[in-house]
Amino acid sequence: MVKIRHMETFDQEFWYKLDRHLPKAEFANKVAAKQGYVLLADHKPAGLLRYFLFWDSVPFCAMLYIDEPYQRTGYGTQLMQYWEEDMKAKGYGMLLTSTQADESAQHFYRKIGYRDCGGLVMDIPGYAQPMEIFFAKQIREI
């Protein structure tokens, strides 16, 4: 049985088991803004998704992660679909996400209907990483 709900304060320990990128000071802000979800599999936390508003107007999935034992079960797709429907219900028409060029997630995003829409090369010493590939998906007609 799968349930998806907004993240709550009591999710913090689980959250940081999977998401090491969200600054500790921002967790409460994400909870208050309802900009994150937890996927429960048989009542146990199994995955998460958090987002922000790019340009203050376009939902951007900044983190999607399914815990190791639950990967390749379709939970990532379910979590993305839930987020897409929630964003559509809130009136948004387009979504964005990204992944590094050396990560396999790029194939997942394409498979669920996201299209490549650009890239970013970060080569500043101390911050360098593989190219970030950006993806977009239209969820509502204009």
Q: How many DSSP E strands?
A: 7
End-to-end C-alpha gap: 36 Å
So what's the overall shape? globular
Binned strand content:
35-45%
Low-confidence stretches: none
Strands ordered across the widest β-sheet: 1-2-3-4-5-7-6
Describe this structure in words.
The protein is an alpha+beta fold and 142 residues long. Helices cover 25% and strands 39% of the residues. It has four helices and seven strands. It has helices spanning 12-18, 27-33, 75-89, 105-111, and strands at 2-6, 36-41, 44-54, 58-66, 94-100, 115-122, 129-138. It has a seven-stranded mixed beta sheet with strand order 1-2-3-4-5-7-6, sandwiched between helices. A hairpin with a 2-residue loop joins strand 2 and strand 3 (44-54). The chain is globular and about 40 Å long. 23% of the residues are buried. The model has no long low-confidence stretch (mean pLDDT 97).
TL;DR of this structure?
With 142 residues, the chain is an alpha+beta fold. It has four helices and seven strands.
Q: What attributes does this structure have?
A:
142 residues, alpha+beta, 7 strands, 25% helix, globular
Question: What's the SSE blueprint?
Answer:
Layout (H helix, E strand, L loop, with lengths): L1 E5 L5 H7 L8 H7 L2 E6 L2 E11 L3 E9 L8 H15 L4 E7 L4 H7 L3 E8 L6 E10 L4
Parallel strand pairs: 4-5
Antiparallel strand pairs: 1-2, 2-3, 3-4, 5-7, 6-7
